[in-house]
Fold this protein.
Amino acid sequence: MNVYDSQRMVDLLAPLGYAPVDEAAAADLVILNTCHIREKATEKLFSELGRLQETQQARAAQGSEMLIAVAGCVAQAEGPEIQRRAPFVSMVFGPQTYHQLPEMIAKIARGAGQVLNTDFPTENKFDSLPAATVARNASAFLSVQEGCDKFCTFCVVPYTRGAEYSRPVAAVLAEAERLIAAGAVELTLLGQNVNAYHGQDADGAVWSLARLCVALAELPGLQRLRYTTSHPLEMTDDLIAAHRDLPVLMPFLHLPVQSGSDKILTAMNRRHTADAYRRVIDKLRAARPEIGLSSDFIVGFPGETEADFAATLQLVKDVGYAQAYSFKYSRRPGTPAAAMPGQLTEDVKDARLAELQTLLLAQQQAFNQRSVGQTLPILFDRVSKYPGQLIGRSPYMQAVHAEVPADQFGRILPIKITSVGNISLGGVAV
Ligand code: SAH
Ligand code: SF4
């Protein structure tokens, strides 16, 4: 979502004469769009700011100005702290106020000093954003839902992104059409809790994510559709049926479960059991047998015992993932879990993470190995560092390298998979 938001900031700034540059040193304005989900992500901000301050001073010595801004969820959560520790930062604004960027820049130009903008404004950000102006990739993101009302006890998202909001159906369809007209053949619908989508159409009827997918699938030119991130509680039957009925809906789903222990799931306020998750997976596989699955896991949540962790390993073995993300529990200020007893040591978390990741990597490699010899449709949307090669994605989100003429960039081609690397596949055009 930060990638999507950053693109929208580019759109907002284009009428003011700003265009993206490759190097911060050449920029008149640098915006760091930040993530607050884990402590590690937050720490990166201050080290990056230190480097940027040097660049800013070097620019000043040459007589030119470089503005520095901090956007995103760290800005939202720690605005005053950023202003205190980094007085050379002129704008600090959260995910729900970036549409006011032109006004903030005007304020700075009028000598406002520092601007802090971390409200949750009553007007809607999406209503104030211009239509997309920058050229997009063949694979484009489209935010349809934002914020979260689930309040998992470990998570900052409900506090930084705010309450759940679904964009109206017409706005989503119009943006999809624009992205397709600009060359996108694949759309990924975004939301912190995307399958809680409940946007209204022009008649005031509320659409589910499934219904939205059905409508998007009819848009001429759209060849692939994905959505992320989903919550298991909202994997409704209509959405599972969409996986059966819509060929454009790719056979891959990222469905975070976090833990395989019911005790920990309850403490996390996930509001479902491990078996309820297994049943959702069973239904998905019945609807789309070849579906590849991904998940997020947290190890070392407060009170997690060896038995709880073993239940997570068992769940992973039962499901069998195509890939997955796993994290050590990170204590986030202000969240209920941060105050829970039974916080675990880093040593315990490190050991559990290593064990889980070994299992997940083995599953990923086994999944990739099964692709060898198959011919898969690959959407080539990245340039490789090796001349003559492009990098693309399989329907199952695997990265695939192949020797493909550069003019095939942005196209979907049949590729026979011939090799498996650590994190990617190699193939030849057929
Ligand atoms: N809305 C999605 C996930 C959003 S955050 C969901 O409900 O699944 C992305 C991932 O970051 C989460 O799935 C979780 O695994 C991880 N995460 C969030 N807060 C965390 C924390 N405090 N410590 C470690 N990992 C965390
Ligand atoms: Fe965070 Fe996802 Fe839970 Fe919402 S559902 S609180 S975004 S982990």
